[in-house]
Amino acid sequence: MAPDEAVVGCTGKLVIGTRGSEGPGEVLVRVRGGSETFFAWSDEPLQRGTTVLVIESRGTRQVVVMAWTDPSLDEPDDGSGSTGGSR
């Protein structure tokens, strides 16, 4: 089956952890207006619940993932020691 390019660049959450080169896990990915599951491969083992980024499609509902933290959710550090709120 041809690679599924629509899933590349999407984020998801591991519902079954990956085992690195020892075998895949399973990831729930938000794609095409819904959520779909794929076998998930990674270079390093990743735990269940890890947020991941899909970096490659292997076709046949298999993807390569890496751990991901969304930088837009990080609060900027203004050096004040404050974590936000009103002034």
Question: Brief overview, please?
Answer:
With 87 residues, the protein is mainly beta. A hairpin with a 2-residue loop joins strand 6 (51-59) and strand 7. It has strands spanning 11-16, 18-19, 25-31, 34-41, 45-46, 51-59, 62-67.
Notes on the structure:
This protein has no helices and seven strands. It has strands at residues 11-16, 18-19, 25-31, 34-41, 45-46, 51-59, 62-67. A five-stranded mixed beta barrel has the order 1-3-4-7-6. Strands 2-5 form a two-stranded antiparallel sheet. The radius of gyration is 16 Å and the shape is globular. The termini are far apart.
Describe the secondary-structure layout.
Layout: E1 11-16, E2 18-19, E3 25-31, E4 34-41, E5 45-46, E6 51-59, E7 62-67
Parallel strand pairs: 4-7
Antiparallel strand pairs: 1-3, 1-6, 2-5, 3-4, 6-7
Structure characteristics:
87 residues; mainly beta; 5-stranded mixed β-barrel; two-stranded antiparallel sheet; 0% helix; 46% strand
**Would you identify the regions where 5 or more consecutive residues have pLDDT less than 50?**
none
Lateral strand order in the biggest sheet: 1-3-4-7-6
Note the main sheet. 5 strands, mixed, barrel
Beta-strand fraction estimate = over 45%
Mean pLDDT, as a whole number?
A: 88
Q: What's the alpha carbon Rg, rounded to whole Å? A: 16 Å
Question: How does the overall form come out from the CA principal axes?
Answer: globular
SSE pattern, N- to C-terminal: EEEEEEE
Share of residues in helices: under 10%
Extended strand count: 7
Span between N and C termini? 56 Å
Going by helix content, strand content and strand pairing, the class is mainly beta
Number of contiguous helices: 0
